[in-house]
Design brief:
- This protein is mainly α.
- It is about 75% helix and about 0% strand.
- The protein has three helices and no strands.
- The N and C termini lie far apart (about 65 Å).
Length: about 120
């Protein structure tokens, strides 16, 4: 017997608008990850006198980008499976992590600007 917990197996096909909204959310997570990655690379390359603080800022951006990119597809898959099965949508701890990560990046950037 085939397992039916994949996003394309079992259950009923959700309204295409919900499927496309789920896909747009997935792509938004990836765009956010790319933006954070670009920011981390930019800080690393463009800060004139690299300090420990600029290295921390670049690292925070890159690590948060990696976490977002790694969690985007599993999140899409869980939401798609829940929609197909008619279950409530799963909660995501990524919202709290992303908020905390961007807050940490903002504080580090502010400290870097003040100390420069």
């Amino acid at each position: 017997m085939a397992e039916t917990n994949g996003p394309h197996e079992g259950g009923s096909e959700p309204d295409y608008r919900f499927t496309l909204a789920n896909e747009r959310t997935f792509l938004a997570w990836l765009r956010t990850a790319l933006g954070l990655l670009a920011g981390g690379v930019a800080v690393h390359q463009l800060v004139p006198d690299p300090t420990a603080l600029s290295t921390v800022l670049a690292s925070l951006c890159v690590v948060l980008a990696a976490v977002l990119a790694a969690s985007a597809y599993p999140r899409w898959r869980r939401v798609q499976s829940a929609m197909r099965a008619g279950r409530p949508l799963p909660k995501s701890g990524m919202l709290v992590l992303l908020t905390a990560g961007i807050f940490a990046i903002t504080l580090t950037a502010a400290a870097l600007m003040v100390l420069s």
